């Protein structure tokens, strides 16, 4: 049996391959910059279906956000070994490799993630060959849910959100005063998820000119700060996975077109394509 996981900072999608149809389930996301090994193991024990926890898993392939070094990979791998001690292979890699494999298979090209955070790369069909660092939600993550949500929240707190939208945001999120919001950002867990939650508001009000402008500005920053700095970027199609790229795909395509870059695949989640990739790899 093979267990595959694609983990973002907010949610993690799983597929168990046991010879028949894949068994899918979801847990929360486990970015090792915000989680430790005991915390991940405890969460998995609560959220993974009992039959999957007890299954004779032989191999685990986990792709996750925040897995940027061997030390961070081990944070996750240690938890996986605790939950499935019988596994002969526990492979932990960055979610960017999952995106490239899902979008491109064994073809070379450009792949990106646009979800809670942002990541991108050039891929040669086997491995990632170049990455321009997104730098996380504090310094970068242009085009991500955190970048869109940050702008919405900032404008709301500074009284710059259109009045009708401000009232709707307050009714939906029931935000306190500025000090309470800052406490939520700086003193409580997962501030990136908190910021990204406001991107959903922009999606729900996508027909509003204000929201259209915020989303377009975020994607323009993505291209100006990251995409256009890849060599000969216009030779590649823009392929991406992630909820932000998927739900704002029309705005994304318009910005890509302005930068003379064709748009390829845009997938909400890569898990189905990852299943096909690993099923193909498992065949003799």
From TrEMBL:
<dbReference type="InterPro" id="IPR052519">
    <property type="entry name" value="Euk-type_GlcNAc_Kinase"/>
</dbReference>
<protein>
    <submittedName>
        <fullName>N-acetylglucosamine kinase</fullName>
    </submittedName>
</protein>
<dbReference type="InterPro" id="IPR043129">
    <property type="entry name" value="ATPase_NBD"/>
</dbReference>
<keyword id="KW-0418">Kinase</keyword>
<dbReference type="GO" id="GO:0016301">
    <property type="term" value="F:kinase activity"/>
</dbReference>
<keyword id="KW-0808">Transferase</keyword>
